[in-house]
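From the methods appendix. Each design record in this collection lists the tokenized structure first, followed by the designed amino acid sequence. Records were kept in a plain field format so they could be parsed without special tools. The example shown here is representative of the layout used throughout.

RECORD:
FOLD TOKENS (249 positions):
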């Protein structure tokens, strides 16, 4: 019995190589195409690909995903750089292919997804909340998509609970030491040799603190999430933002 016909776009990058190996070993999945930056996307239609994992760079990910949707190929996207304008354009493209599913996942680590979920649950119980993310120095964007997604979920949970702004009396920050502000939540980015992907979510109230931390020491940590997404994205037509929506949380 044949499995899901899958492909990897960005197969020669570090994440791409891990994804190729993981999909080759996964039961119920047949890896039928592995594309590098110089390969034509037409190879996907020639191989009758059903699901493509997109692991390229922000400069090309939008056009790659548009191609997939236009050809009815489900997409599992790990490339960052998906701001609201890009997501809005993707929604319009998906309207022309309503049976096609696209997952935009800020993080495929199960630990990171759970950390974001736990943070969302904790957000309404603490006055203060900040996010710290640490990645390898070759990462192109800052703050990370995971940290941005985490901050937005915390902010949404606080708003739903009727909470006001996070307390902060800072009046002068000439050097930007307070970090980026995402929906009212401060986010700090560190780039350090020897790291892969790490996030620390800090909450505080009078006399109490809660820290939620997740560490990915090897890119193999992201592969179970990618394999799960390839198996289940066809069950979720339209745009899905975040792997948590494909998990039983």
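DESIGN:
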């Amino acid at each position: 019995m044949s499995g899901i016909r899958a492909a990897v776009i960005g197969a020669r990058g570090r994440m791409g190589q891990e994804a190729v190996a993981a999909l080759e070993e996964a039961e119920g999945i047949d890896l039928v195409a592995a594309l590098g930056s110089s390969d034509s996307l037409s190879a996907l239609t020639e191989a009758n690909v059903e699901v493509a994992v997109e692991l390229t760079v922000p400069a090309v990910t939008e056009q790659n995903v548009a191609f997939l949707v236009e050809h009815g190929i489900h997409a599992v996207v790990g490339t960052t750089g998906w701001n609201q304008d890009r997501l809005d354009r993707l929604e319009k493209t998906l309207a022309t292919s309503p049976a096609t599913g696209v997952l935009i996942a800020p993080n495929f680590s199960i630990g990171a997804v759970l950390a974001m979920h736990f943070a969302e649950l904790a957000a309404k119980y603490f006055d203060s909340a900040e996010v710290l993310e640490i990645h390898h120095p070759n990462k192109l964007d800052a703050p990370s998509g995971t940290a941005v997604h985490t901050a937005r979920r915390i902010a949404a949970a606080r708003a739903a609970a009727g909470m006001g702004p996070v307390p902060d009396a800072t009046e002068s920050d000439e050097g930007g030491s307070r970090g980026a502000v995402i929906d009212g939540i401060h986010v700090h980015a560190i780039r350090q040799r020897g790291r892969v992907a790490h996030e620390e979510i800090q909450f505080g109230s009078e006399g109490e603190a809660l820290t939620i931390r997740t560490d990915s020491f090897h890119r193999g940590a992201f592969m179970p999430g990618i394999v799960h997404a390839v198996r289940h994205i066809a069950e979720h037509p339209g745009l899905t933002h975040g792997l948590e929506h494909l998990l039983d949380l």
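APPENDIX NOTE: The longest helix spans residues 145-160.
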